[in-house]
Amino acid sequence: MNVNQSAPPVPPFGQAQPIYPGYHQSSYGGQPVPPTPYGTYNGPVPGYQQTPPQGVSRAPPSSGVPPASMAQASCGQAAYGQFGQGDIQNGPSSTVQMQRLPGSQQFGSPLGPVVSQPPVLQPYGPPPTSTQVTAQLAGMQISGAAAPAPPPSGLGYGPPSSLASASGSFPNSGPYGSYPQSQASPLSQAQGHPGVQPPLRSAPPLASNFTPPVSGGPRMPSMTGPLPPGQGFGGPPVSQPNHVSSPPAHALPPGTQVTGPPVPPPPMHSPQQPGYRLQQNGSFGPARGPQPNYEIPYPGAPTFGSQPGPPQPLPPKRLDPDTIPSPIQVIEDDRNNRGSEPFATGVRGQVPPLVTTNFLVKDQGNASPRYIRCTSYNIPCTSDMAKQAQVPLAAVIKPLAKLPPEEASPYIVDHGESGPLRCNRCKAYMCPFMQFIEGGRRFQCCFCSCINDVPPQYFQHLDHTGKRVDAYDRPELSLGSYEFLATVDYCKNNKFPSPPAFIFMIDVSYNAIRTGLVRLLCEELKSLLDYLPREGGAEESAIRVGFVTYNKVLHFYNVKSSLAQPQMMVVSDVADMFVPLLDGFLVNVSESRAVITSLLDQIPEMFTDTRETETVFAPVIQAGMEALKAAECAGKLFLFHTSLPIAEAPGKLKNRDDRKLINTDKEKTLFQPQTGTYQTLAKECVAQGCCVDLFLFPNQYVDVSTLSVVPQLTGGSVYKYACFQVENDQERFLSDLRCDIQKVVGFDAVMRVRTSTGIRAVDFFGAFYMSNTTDVELAGLDGDKTVTVEFKHDDRLNEESGALLQCALLYTSCAGQRRLRIHNLALNCCTQLADLYRNCETDTLINYMAKFAYRGVLTSPVKAVRDTLITQCAQILACYRKNCASSSSAGQLILPECMKLLPVYLNCVLKSDVLQPGAEVTTDDRAYVRQLVSSMDVAETNVFFYPRLLPLTKSPFETTEPPAVRASEERLSNGDIYLLENGLNLFVWVGASVQQGVVQSLFNVSSFSQITSGLSVLPVLDNPLSKKVRGLIDSLRAQRMRYMKLIVVKQEDKLEMLFKHFLVEDKSLNGGASYVDFLCHMHKEIRQLLS
């Protein structure tokens, strides 16, 4: 969405809108909408009575506060008055969608005048006698006047006996919100809202407005709002789509028209005007699909313009998921609106395109969103405002992110022996925001305002605007990201570093030999050593390599180039680990090629008859670290390990896996390491610049929580291949290993985030170690890892100057060069909450919240962590509702435009294996995912929590991916094939009624029954469909940091349960709520906060 775009011209209200009649709506439903018989906005509506019945009349709108008698009552009052709360209608779901009534009506239940006493209800006509009406938010008192009523049995969020716990873990709530079938109404051609006008980022922020249906028939968000001066009801306000002022339905006598002078728009800073709702962007996304809740007469209900007929019972309908915010639609809209233009970073506080949009970045002074993404690009000026909104202020920083080929890597700046220019007081590095004064002889620091002298060799004159004449010749004065070559002062012991080393440490116990792992690995390493990371144009890598094998004891190998055969040295004293040789252990690959090849040939043969099942673990890491220390270099250990280390040695572990602890206060112990040995060891590794990557091949519990401590604290990675079998897992393991070895890594790194006065970094999430409160220490950092930083206020911010972040990473490159990488970002500051909510980024917010929650399980019960997330989300949305959306019926859920996906994504986090495990999820799986997510970037968490579901046979796609559909079982057609991916898993789901020709083309068998369920590779066939699908799978794998193993799942097969686990909009087997249920639960939480 373009921040500055102007609204497209739309026909004035009252004119027929050519887009609507019978058009095919791409937004959600995709069903043609018939034209309707309704009249224009202000004209008489055909079929309406012209004689007002007894009841309420409405005066012309005025800009003042309406009298109490005209205040709008909430829909629940009427509903609960007319029908009992237990009148819930159950029945089959249906896919027919609700369609809108003309915008000239507001949609609610029959209401009477509201005074300060409890409201008196005046329904028009007799109430329905036999028609049952859905109470979709059963248990939620809609009026706010009375205390919440208990939910009818079988419908609430928790067990029938109690209200929901805030954790959102709800048993089956039955037909969540069914409603009578006749309640679809045709959409008015002349209805009073602008056609397909895209929502704009203009003041106040747009809201997505969704009304969970309440008893009394489904109700749609009313669309109200003041009109600009001089504009009658004949045309819409340009900057506020869908804001049409209208009275509540049924509160007007039939046929009464709204007349009166238009009211002036409210000032930006006063978002609330009684009687007029501002932020109600009736539907979600520019092209708007049919929506539920637009109330029309159902059989037995009072009708306008005709005599009420006898009631007729009808089959029920449930809330249509097409009418609540769709991640697929939001992603598609952003791609269409922002994918074509490059994103120039010159403007402060610009919200970048979504991570799911392909776009080019032009660095014009702020760091690319590939390096830094923020939860909000407009932060509150005061801490009180920040506390009120509860939106976490955080940045997800990926300092060494890999850029697409079309974008240039950061320039390297060499200032010679003097080193990079910095502020004397706060030590911030020179950047585009520094202010040069006194003709260029001094500069004022943009972070701390200290005035510094410019060294003579750096002096340059200023132009008439106060900018240095050479600003565009110097990356540090014109770009958001760049590198400085570091001087010797930035090196350990004031000595330039040696090139780093890689040490391969291979488990040769019985399990590793028996599965064929050792042989496979040794074979692969022979060729893989040619692909070690190298700098720019270097012919060969400067990295040296070493080899260790181990079971209960360790074997070191001398592979010096002058030897004819490798020599083995055994260290059996694992309690006091030392490295038995220095010369010949770490060698250059090209020099010792023959000896290394000989060693890799011999290792599988040497241990082929081993019966040793026990292994050690901590001494192996200790040995690798000691070897790097002796060689005086940083480096990385690649550990290949198969079992729980139960041999007598430091770091010995016992099997403590206990599923009985799940959902108890002791569950957190499953995520904590069982011994302090590994934290101590990790601290030593970080001091030495020794990063550990761990490849696990367990057949049973190996205590990932403990074994992953060292990789986690040293900036390393953990890979896990449960029940490894060469034929099934070879491709995945080797692909991960190749990527891991070839990654560009910064070694022995320290990162610091500086901020301008008013905010400071207070909390950090990721794979690193911190010995103080400011420095993030990383023995290694690769291009996939992020560090997430949370900021808090320590003073008032200034709207004019904004807020600045500078991330500085000091690291050793693969060639042994010491460098500083700098990323700068300027953010806006605001005094209005509306501006904060208009500039948030939900994907980054979810990334932060997931990491916050996943760290929380180490110290708090999982249920408490889930409750905290739900409460925070409810507070964020309640604050918006209270301060940025004007007063409206409590039956409406109003979401900020850029946060409308917060509930669906948060529900995915709550249902994830870490926070709500199913019976089949092991403790090790949960620990593995927990540490994996801790350093994921925003794009990875986005697809991990909300997987992509792509239909393979519906749409013709050649070069691009097919359009995704929502992750719900309802979207699956048994005549189609779908591909699902979440960054770690890849499924091909085959419907039972797929055409025989498609089955033949893709699987090379003649019928559905002959497809092998669980197949992990598609046959290579020479036909368009096979090539297309295999090409798509390859391109998806290339986008992800881990290799996704393919699993073919047939409909109605036992593997389908695994596949359905990833259909995150549905209710999960382990008690996770469906999206619809959770949205209603969220609404309830918000209303409790507001009342």
Write the layout of secondary structure elements.
Blueprint: H1 75-82, E1 207-210, H2 327-338, E2 343-344, E3 361-362, E4 372-374, E5 378-380, H3 383-389, E6 394-397, E7 412-413, E8 435-437, E9 442-444, E10 451-453, H4 475-478, E11 481-485, E12 501-507, H5 510-514, H6 517-528, E13 544-550, E14 554-558, E15 567-571, E16 587-588, H7 593-606, H8 618-630, E17 635-641, H9 677-688, E18 690-696, H10 704-707, H11 709-714, E19 718-720, H12 726-742, E20 745-755, E21 759-765, E22 776-782, E23 787-793, E24 803-812, E25 818-830, H13 833-838, H14 842-856, H15 862-883, E26 893-896, H16 902-910, H17 923-933, H18 938-945, E27 948-951, E28 977-981, E29 985-990, H19 996-1003, H20 1024-1039, E30 1045-1050, H21 1056-1060, H22 1075-1090
Parallel strand pairs: 2-3, 5-25, 7-11, 12-13, 12-17, 17-18, 18-19, 29-30
Antiparallel strand pairs: 1-26, 4-6, 6-23, 8-9, 9-10, 11-25, 13-14, 13-16, 14-15, 20-22, 20-24, 21-23, 24-25, 27-28, 28-29
Helix pairs in contact: 6-7, 6-12, 8-9, 14-15, 14-16, 14-18, 15-16, 15-22, 19-20
Family: Belongs to the SEC23/SEC24 family. SEC24 subfamily.
Domain Sec23/Sec24 beta-sandwich: 746-829
InterPro entries: ADF-H/Gelsolin-like_dom_sf, Beta-sandwich_Sec23_24, Gelsolin-like_dom, Gelsolin-like_dom_sf, Sec23/24_helical_dom, Sec23/24_helical_dom_sf, Sec23/24_trunk_dom, SEC23_SEC24_subfamily
